[in-house]
Design a protein that fits this description.
Elements: H1 2-7, E1 10-11, E2 26-32, H2 41-47, E3 59-65, H3 72-82, E4 89-93, E5 97-98, H4 99-111, E6 115-117, E7 120-121, E8 127-128, H5 150-157, E9 161-162, E10 164-167, H6 175-178, H7 182-202, H8 207-215, E11 222-225, H9 235-245, H10 250-265, H11 270-300
Parallel strand pairs: 3-4, 4-6, 6-9
Antiparallel strand pairs: 1-5, 2-3, 7-8, 10-11
């Protein structure tokens, strides 16, 4: 009984009946690889020293859109496997759904160093998803442009994340759960919470963030932001990249942004222009080093 009830928990989506194809999540390719006319072999050797070379038509970025349901992990894994090791990011547009599927997808993202993009928030309110080519928000349905609940669990699995996600504790409307005694219901519910908390701890999510999820009612949402809440990178991933590529401090990042803003409005003096040039070059070197580190590492991993 307990195992059956645990399988019925969902975040943001109550224990659901079999979903129709229209309700199930779409898993697809957002961006197709198209080789440049003068693509250099030297660059490919740096990115994939083991010999992999992308070919036209391969998928570079995937997307998950809609309610997460049973079988979606298999769809995500199969899409990645067919395009290993080229896919490096997924765009997430989902109101939530099956917890177990979300945890497995998040673990896959962490293993294969796949970045996650959730919608970002406009200063005046509302959400938008930048960069994506096919995973567009529906302008006629504001709720489509969200990554909430089980979707947020996937997002936390990624080693590098962008955007805003919504958290709350899981809920179920399963009649079997309602029929339990308070003691039995507590055992079942605590088991589900412990499983989610363990996953988030494994993904190095700060404990205050886990506590905030547990403290948020299943009918409310606690929004978290990759930049504001400093969740852009998993700590071990950030230090692993830094060990090979060096570090860029928050002070350097803020200085670069301030100089760029000033340059857009007025002329920089000689010292400011030189400093901006140095910081810009450091940023470019770091980003290429990170790209090279990830592509070469992903290439060495076995196909899932």
């Amino acid at each position: 009984m307990f195992r059956l009830l645990l399988s019925c928990f969902a975040i943001a989506s109550a224990c659901l009946p079999v979903l129709s194809s229209a309700e199930a999540a779409q898993v697809g390719c957002d961006r197709i690889f198209e080789p440049a006319p003068h693509r250099g072999e030297e660059l490919d050797k740096k990115l994939w020293p083991g010999g992999f070379r992308p070919v036209a038509g391969m998928c570079m970025a995937g997307f998950i859109r809609g309610t997460i349901s049973k079988g979606d992990f298999d769809k995500v894994r199969d899409l990645y496997a067919k395009n290993h090791p080229l896919i490096d990011q997924f765009f997430l547009l989902s109101p939530g759904g099956d917890v177990d599927e979300a945890l497995k997808i998040g673990a896959l993202f962490r293993k294969y160093l796949i970045y996650a993009w959730a919608p970002m928030r406009f200063p005046e309110g509302g959400f938008y998803l930048p960069i994506a080519e096919r995973a567009k928000c529906d302008d006629n349905d504001e709720t489509s442009c969200r990554c909430v609940s089980a979707c947020a669990l996937i997002w936390f699995g990624a080693p590098k994340r962008f955007g805003v996600v919504g958290l709350h504790r899981p809920r179920t409307t399963d009649p079997a759960f309602r029929a339990l005694s308070p003691e039995a219901a507590a055992k079942v519910y605590k088991g589900e919470l412990n499983g989610i908390a363990h996953y988030l701890d494994e993904m190095e999510v700060p404990k205050p963030m886990i506590d905030a999820m547990v403290a948020t009612s299943s009918v409310d949402v606690r929004w978290v932001d990759d930049h504001r809440d400093r969740l852009e990178r998993a700590p071990s991933f950030a230090e692993w990249v830094g060990a090979s590529c060096g570090q860029i401090s928050a002070e350097e990042t803020n200085t670069k942004l301030e100089l760029e803003r000033k340059k857009s409005k007025s002329t920089l003096n000689a010292n400011e222009a030189l400093l901006l040039k140095m910081l810009d070059q450091k940023d470019k070197d770091y980003n290429f080093c990170e790209l090279q580190l990830l592509t070469s590492t992903r290439e060495r991993l076995p196909r899932p």
